[in-house]
Structures are given as structure tokens and as C-alpha cells.
């Protein structure tokens, strides 16, 4: 069909805009039906996209719920800076649930390996209880990991924040069931159906701001179990590990003791899209020590109340 | 690029997860670390070959038992399309999870084991696909390698399924012989079946026409959320946010708002990227109206000459998904579009026998995984259409008032 004979358009949204609409629908459902929602904001690319979509969902009004950062204390300074800038730009309230503070008052204990991945779960649950949050938005995507691939968009959690993978609520069409009793909550994943590549295409189309560490830069790193760890106050080379300078970027941003960089020359979004399109490693496989631990590491953490 | 959502279906062990693993593998959608992982687990389990089902069976219990328990969502793209796959469980105990996966599908692939032919669970899933009105159905006769690619076996299953499907509402049906394990007729047509003249599975998935499956005629806009910025700049802004559930809505259109019945004009439509001239499904938009009417969540915006049926009496096919049976007299919560009400089960007209499609009208209850025709009376009017005309305004869920669990899914029939 030539351009001329074609109908003005065939009422077809691009797949990215279908995903965006779906995410907006989910976010508005929560705002309409749940008493006290909160959006978890780590400063990573998925939470940045989620916040961007949330702002669009309520424009020209403000986002009608606060955001919360579970601060492990193991942060990249660029990410904290980015977090504060975004919070100011969108005019949302920021709640910080601090793991170091929880360690100090003896609520949780530092794990022998120094990772705060596990102990952030009780801190998260405590903050939810304190603020009486009934729904928490998370930026998790189903393509990230095999247990996430199984989770509902509205994921019911009992009064201990636990996920029961063998007993999830049926979830049909776009009818979401957020009904809960006191103490229970819903985790909500508006970006469930997005892939890593969708996220990057969206960042490109929408000019979503990100912390600079997502783009290629020079950094002092060392090799640990095949992963490139940054040499910083949270993570020092052990014996036999030598540091060197490499051109790297981050594919995910998590606890700085666990999150590895990848070698990359991708200094802008388009270069990253090309790189992600050609990569042969999942983002978590390439960069996350936490998921390598055991066969069902993520599933187990979710059962404990983690995202 | 457009999007195709498809779901697998069929009985336990017919090869659904293996097929998805194969599709992902052959379209190079599997990452090295994922592949290494399933290779290692397969070796650890002493398998002769890499068990591609492990790519979707992500839960510990699934891997231990070698079955799928809940839907896995997987994604891949070819230059033609992006695909969202729902790999659903075949086990009857988890039928509700199959229904979850199939409810949003544009296409369902029903697998049949060539050695066993149609079994009750294949019929149940075919029936559910038809009940959910999944617009396109593919019957994949799998494990053809185990019957030496015998054309007679395939023809027999093909004929049997076509006979069964003739009594269902399946709009577009195609059948294909495959071996999910070996990858025959998945991406490329296989030399093993010279007698098969159709296309490969992937070719079909890439080319099946789905654009016309949406309702672009009957304007339906369930109000989801009212946006009132309360700022100086937008002092008088009052917008109705929601997702288009049908038709095409334009600024200047005369609209009627239910339940009030008042009419007004669309002043503007704000899409996610600013003002928009035409809104259609599945766009999330904000509609602004000329007159200030009392409108809140659960109201429905439509055209004065084309309205859904506003009623408290609902006739529907209900798929029951919990152990406590559905019985007349039962009270439930009903969620339909953005409206929530309470519902009383007035009558259970019949229960369907999945094998024979016989209507059993002597039954007093619907048990777990049963499907039957039910009449409900709701505390407030709902604005409904036939499910066949519009999935969004024709479908609802039922929630138990005490446990809060979703216990039923309904598809409205005979709305007028
Ligand atoms: N020979 C042969 N075996 C197959 C084929 N497809 C699947 N299988 C085997 O059949 C068994 C069951 O496969 P699955 O893919 O787990 O079956 P499923 O339909 O996903 O099962 P549930 O999800 O539990 O309902 C596995 O051992 C597969 O390797 C095939 O084409 N040929
Ligand atoms: Mg399976």
C-alpha cells in the first residue's frame, strides 16, 4: 500500500506505547483503590522510568503518593545525587529507610560477607509498617529473573510481607484485585511486561534522566569471580585481586558491594540500545552477585518479603 | 513494531514449556548465562538433553516436580513483532493460572501429545480459549518424533479437534505438526513432514492479523480516576483519567455519562504526550468535558446513541476457581471495569460437562474448575456489553468477601 492510499492511521499503538498505557493504567488503579501507596525509588533505571511514567499518569497534577528509598548505606554517590534531584523535580515526598541506622539500633545485624541485600528486607517491612503503606510500587520486570517471571502484577503479600508463589491470586484481563486485610499489602509492578531493551528505547524516546554511571566512563576496577567491581570504600580488592582502569558502565544499580560494572564504550542512549540489543548476558547474570548465590536466590528472598 | 500476546495451553507434559524454550532458543532470545544455567541443571538431573522447559519453569517446586505450576511470562522479538508469552500450566489443579494467562492473549497454542490425542484437559483448555474468546487458536500436535512423523496420526487428531471445535466459538483455527524437543516446524518448516503444507509456527505468529480484534466502534470509557491538580496554574482543571475500552473518542463528540445519563461534549483529550485528536483502545488518556458534571470512578462515558446496558441483573458464564463451591444465595464482591459492587448469586442455570459440552441443569453448585451459567443480582447497576463484543466491558471477576481471594471469572452473555 502506498503512503497516499493508506488510512491516516490504523489505530495501532506501537508496542512501547501499549506498555506505557498499561503501566499508567496500573498506577492509576492503585492510586484510586489503595489507601496508602508508596513508590520504591532506588535511583536505578527501572525506578527512574517508573517515576517518569507515574508523573505522566497524573499530569498536570502531582504524583499523589510518596517515594521511598531503602538506603543500604552502600551507595554510589552519583545515584544519591540523582535521587535527590528527581525527588525535587517531581515535587514528591522522599522517605528514607536506612539500613545503617537499623544496624546501629540493633534491629538487624550485619551479615558476615558485608552484603546488606538480605537485611534490607526487614528494614523495608518495618518502614512499611511504620508508614502504614498498603501498596508498594516496584520497578521489577519479569524478564529480569525466573522467579520474577512468575509474579503477578498485583502481588499479594501477607502480614509478614511474604510472597506465596504456589498460591497467587488469579489475575484476569486488566482487573486487578487489591483487596487486603489490615497488615497485609500489595506489591505492584507496573513495568512487569517491559524488557531491558524496552526500558532503553523508552529512555531514548522520552529523554528520561538517569544517573551518569549508566553511561560509559573510566573507573578503577578489579576482577572478582569474572565480574568487574569498582574499587571504592565499600568494596576493596582482596589479596590476589589487582585494580586497573577500564571503560565501563553499569547495567543495574544495586548495593555497591554487589553490583558489578560491564566493559562498555556506550556513552549515550543510542549506543546502549545497540549494545543491549547485541548482548548475550542477562543484566542480573552479568552484574549481580546476589542472584548467583543459589539456584532459587530470588524466589527465597521474595518469600521473605523482598521485592 | 506491534505486539502479539500469546499463551500456551494443553494437558500436563504435552510439551508447552519445552515449546516456549525452543522458540526462545531458536530465535536467539536466550542469554548465555540462562542457557548455561539450564544446561547445568539438566546435567545435574542426569538428563540426556538440555531440558528447555527449565527456561520457563522458574520456581523451585516446578523444577523439583518437572511441572509448571503458575504462568511464566517471557518475551522475545523478531524484526516483525514483539511477543509476550504466557506459558501456562497443564495440570487441572492449576486451571485458574491457565485462565490468568489466556485472558489477555491474542492467540492460544493448544498442544496435543501425538501419542495420546485429545484428552479431557485438551478439551477443557480449548473450551476455555473459546470461552475467553481468544481470537486465534493454533493446535500444535507435538512429539511427532515419537510417532515417526506418521501423517495418519496427525490427520486423526486434526479431524478430532476440528470436530470438537465446531461446537465452540473459535474464529480462527490452524493446526500444525511439531516436535518441540527437536525444533521441527517451529521456526523453519521441517523436512520430516513433507506432507504438511502449512507454515511454521513462528511464521504464523509473526503474520497472524490481530489489528482488527479490538472494538473500534462502540465508545466505552470507564472513569478510573479524577485528576484535579488544585494548583494556581491549573485551578479549574478537572480531568477524567482512564483507559479506552472501546471505540474512538474525539474532542467535540457528544457523550453521555452513566449512571447519571447527563450529556455533554468532549472539550479535550489529554493523552500521555499532550492533546490528542483520537483516543482508542488501549490508550490511557484524560478526558475533559465542557460541563461540570458530578462524575467519579466507576462511571462510564459513552455515546448517547450507543450505550452499554445498565443493569443489576447479570447473566454470565462463570469459571469457578476455588475449593468452596459456588451456590445460589452466595454473596460476593464483583469487579467490572472500574466499578466494584456486591453480587448475590440468584441462580445457577447449568454446569457444563467439558468432555461432552452437555449442560447439566440438575446441579446445585459449581466446584473448583467448573464452568457454568450463572445469574447475578448486583447492589448497583453495572454498564455491560456482551463479552463477545468487548472483552473489557464484558468480563468481570468475583472476589470472596472474607478471604479477599479472586474466586471466579465471568464472561457476560446476552447483555440485552
Ligand atoms: N520426544 C519428545 N519429547 C518432548 C517433546 N516436547 C516435550 N517433550 C518432553 O515432554 C516432557 C514434558 O514437557 P514440558 O514442556 O515440561 O510439558 P508441559 O506441557 O510444559 O507440562 P506442564 O506445564 O506441567 O503442563 C519433557 O520431558 C519434555 O522433554 C517433543 O516434541 N518430543
Ligand atoms: Mg510447562
Give an overview in words.
The complex is a heterodimer of chains A (307) and B (416). In chain A, helix 2 links the parallel strand 1 (37-40) and strand 2 (67-71). Chain A is built from 10 helices and 10 strands. Chain A is globular. By secondary structure, chain A is an alpha/beta fold. In chain A, the strands form 2 sheets. Chain A has a 6-stranded mixed sheet. Chain B is of the alpha+beta class and 416 residues long. Helices cover 18% and strands 34% of the residues of chain B. In chain B, strand 5, helix 6 (151-165) and strand 6 (172-177) form a beta-alpha-beta unit. The longest helix of chain B is centred in the middle third of the chain and has 15 residues, at 151-165. The two termini of chain B are 38 Å apart. The mean pLDDT of chain B is 94. Chains A and B meet through helix 1 and helix 2 of A and helix 2, helix 3, strand 2, helix 4 and strand 9 of B. Guanosine-5'-triphosphate (GTP) binds next to helix 1 of chain B.
Quick tags:
heterodimer, A: 307 residues, alpha/beta, six-stranded mixed sheet, four-stranded antiparallel sheet, 10 helices, 10 strands, 33% helix, globular, disordered N terminus, B: Rossmann fold, Elongation Factor Tu (Ef-tu), domain 3, 3 domains, eight-stranded antiparallel sheet, 18% helix, binds guanosine-5'-triphosphate, binds magnesium ion
Topology:
The complex is a heterodimer of chains A (307) and B (416).
Chain A: H1 15-33, E1 37-40, H2 45-58, E2 67-71, H3 77-90, E3 94-98, H4 99-104, H5 120-131, E4 135-137, E5 154-157, E6 185-188, H6 196-206, E7 217-224, E8 227-230, E9 243-250, E10 261-263, H7 269-278, H8 283-287, H9 289-292, H10 297-303
Parallel strand pairs in A: 1-2, 1-4, 2-3, 4-6
Antiparallel strand pairs in A: 5-6, 7-8, 7-9, 9-10
Helix pairs in contact in A: 1-2, 6-7
Chain B: E1 2-10, H1 16-26, H2 32-44, H3 60-65, E2 72-77, E3 81-87, H4 95-102, E4 107-113, H5 120-131, E5 136-142, H6 151-165, E6 172-177, H7 201-207, E7 221-222, E8 225-227, E9 239-243, E10 248-249, E11 254-258, E12 263-271, E13 274-275, E14 279-280, E15 284-289, E16 300-302, E17 309-320, E18 331-336, E19 339-352, E20 359-360, E21 371-384, H8 391-394, E22 395-399, E23 406-412
Parallel strand pairs in B: 1-3, 1-4, 4-5, 5-6
Antiparallel strand pairs in B: 2-3, 7-16, 8-9, 9-15, 10-14, 11-12, 11-16, 12-13, 12-15, 17-21, 17-23, 18-19, 18-22, 19-20, 19-21, 22-23
Magnesium ion binds at residues 16-17, 53, 68, 87 of chain B.
Amino acid at each position: 500500500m502506498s503512503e497516499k492510499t493508506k488510512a491516516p492511521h490504523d489505530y495501532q499503538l506501537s508496542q512501547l506505547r501499549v506498555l506505557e498505557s498499561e503501566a499508567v493504567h496500573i498506577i492509576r488503579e492503585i492510586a484510586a483503590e489503595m489507601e496508602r501507596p508508596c513508590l520504591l525509588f532506588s535511583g536505578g533505571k527501572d525506578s527512574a522510568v517508573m517515576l517518569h511514567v507515574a508523573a505522566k499518569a497524573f499530569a498536570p497534577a502531582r504524583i499523589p503518593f510518596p517515594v521511598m528509598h531503602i538506603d543500604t548505606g552502600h551507595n554510589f554517590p552519583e545515584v544519591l545525587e540523582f535521587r535527590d534531584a528527581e525527588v525535587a523535580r517531581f515535587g514528591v515526598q522522599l522517605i528514607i529507610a536506612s539500613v545503617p541506622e537499623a544496624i546501629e539500633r540493633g534491629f538487624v545485624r550485619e551479615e558476615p560477607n558485608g552484603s546488606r541485600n538480605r537485611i534490607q528486607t526487614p528494614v523495608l517491612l518495618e518502614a512499611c509498617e511504620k508508614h502504614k503503606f498498603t501498596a508498594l510500587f516496584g520497578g521489577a520486570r519479569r524478564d529480569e529473573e525466573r522467579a520474577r517471571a512468575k509474579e503477578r502484577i498485583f502481588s499479594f503479600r501477607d502480614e509478614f510481607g511474604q510472597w506465596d508463589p504456589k498460591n497467587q491470586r488469579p489475575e484476569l484481563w486488566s482487573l486487578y484485585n487489591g483487596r487486603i486485610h489490615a497488615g497485609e499489602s500489595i506489591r505492584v509492578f507496573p513495568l512487569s511486561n517491559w524488557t531491558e531493551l524496552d526500558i532503553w528505547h523508552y529512555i531514548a524516546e522520552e529523554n528520561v534522566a538517569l544517573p551518569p554511571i549508566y553511561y560509559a566512563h573510566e573507573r578503577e576496577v578489579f576482577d572478582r569471580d569474572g565480574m568487574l567491581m569498582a574499587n571504592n570504600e565499600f568494596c576493596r580488592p582482596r589479596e590476589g585481586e589487582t585494580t586497573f582502569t577500564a571503560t565501563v558502565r553499569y547495567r543495574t544499580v544495586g548495593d555497591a558491594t554487589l553490583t558489578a560494572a560491564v566493559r562498555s564504550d556506550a556513552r549515550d542512549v543510542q549506543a546502549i540500545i545497540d549494545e543491549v540489543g547485541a548482548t548475550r548476558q542477562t543484566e542480573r547474570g552479568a552484574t549481580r552477585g546476589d542472584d548467583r548465590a543459589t539456584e532459587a536466590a530470588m524466589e527465597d528472598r521474595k518469600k521473605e518479603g523482598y521485592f | 513494531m506491534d505486539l502479539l500476546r500469546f499463551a500456551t495451553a494443553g494437558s500436563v507434559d504435552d510439551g508447552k514449556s519445552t515449546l516456549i524454550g525452543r522458540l526462545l532458543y531458536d530465535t536467539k532470545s536466550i542469554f548465555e548465562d540462562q542457557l548455561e544455567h539450564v544446561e547445568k541443571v539438566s546435567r545435574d538431573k542426569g538428563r540426556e538433553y538440555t531440558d528447555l522447559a527449565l527456561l520457563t519453569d522458574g520456581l523451585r517446586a516446578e523444577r523439583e516436580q518437572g511441572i509448571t505450576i503458575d504462568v511464566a511470562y517471557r518475551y522475545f522479538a523478531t524484526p516483525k513483532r514483539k511477543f509476550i508469552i504466557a506459558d501456562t500450566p497443564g495440570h487441572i489443579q492449576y486451571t485458574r493460572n491457565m485462565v490468568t494467562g489466556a485472558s489477555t492473549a491474542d492467540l492460544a497454542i493448544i498442544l496435543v501429545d501425538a501419542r495420546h490425542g485429545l484428552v479431557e484437559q485438551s478439551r477443557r483448555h480449548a473450551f476455555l480459549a473459546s470461552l475467553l474468546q481468544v481470537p486465534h487458536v493454533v493446535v500444535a500436535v507435538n512429539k511427532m518424533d515419537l510417532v515417526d512423523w506418521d501423517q495418519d496420526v496427525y490427520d486423526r487428531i486434526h479431524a478430532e479437534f476440528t470436530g470438537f471445535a465446531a461446537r465452540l466459538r473459535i474464529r480462527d483455527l490452524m493446526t500444525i505438526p511439531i516436535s518441540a524437543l527437536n525444533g521441527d516446524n517451529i521456526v523453519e518448516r521441517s523436512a520430516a513432514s513433507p506432507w504438511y503444507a502449512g507454515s511454521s509456527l513462528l511464521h504464523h505468529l509473526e503474520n497472524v492479523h490481530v489489528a482488527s480484534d479490538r472494538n473500534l466502534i462502540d465508545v466505552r470509557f470507564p472513569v478510573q480516576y479524577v485528576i484535579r491538580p488544585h494548583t494556581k496554574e491549573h485551578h479549574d482543571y478537572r480531568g477524567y483519567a482512564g483507559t479506552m475500552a472501546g471505540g474512538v473518542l474525539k474532542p467535540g463528540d457528544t457523550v453521555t455519562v452513566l449512571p447519571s445519563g447527563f450529556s455533554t461534549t468532549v472539550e479535550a483529550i489529554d493523552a500521555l504526550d499532550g492533546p490528542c485528536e483520537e483516543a482508542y483502545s488501549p490508550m490511557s488518556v484524560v478526558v475533559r468535558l465542557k460541563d461540570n458534571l458530578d462524575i467519579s470512578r466507576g462511571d462510564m462515558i459513552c455515546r448517547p446513541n450507543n450505550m452499554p446496558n445498565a443493569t443489576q441483573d447479570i447473566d454470565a458464564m462463570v469459571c469457578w476457581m476455588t475449593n468452596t463451591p459456588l451456590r445460589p444465595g452466595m454473596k460476593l464482591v464483583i469487579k467490572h471495569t472500574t466499578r466494584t459492587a456486591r453480587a448475590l448469586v440468584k441462580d445457577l442455570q447449568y454446569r457444563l460437562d467439558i468432555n461432552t459440552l452437555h449442560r447439566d441443569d440438575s446441579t446445585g453448585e459449581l466446584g473448583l474448575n467448573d464452568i457454568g451459567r450463572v445469574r447475578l443480582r448486583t447492589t448497583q447497576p453495572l454498564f455491560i456489553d456482551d463479552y463477545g463484543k468487548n472483552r473489557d466491558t464484558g468480563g468481570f471477576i468475583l472476589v470472596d468477601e472474607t478471604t479477599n481471594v479472586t474466586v471466579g471469572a465471568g464472561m457476560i452473555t446476552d447483555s440485552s
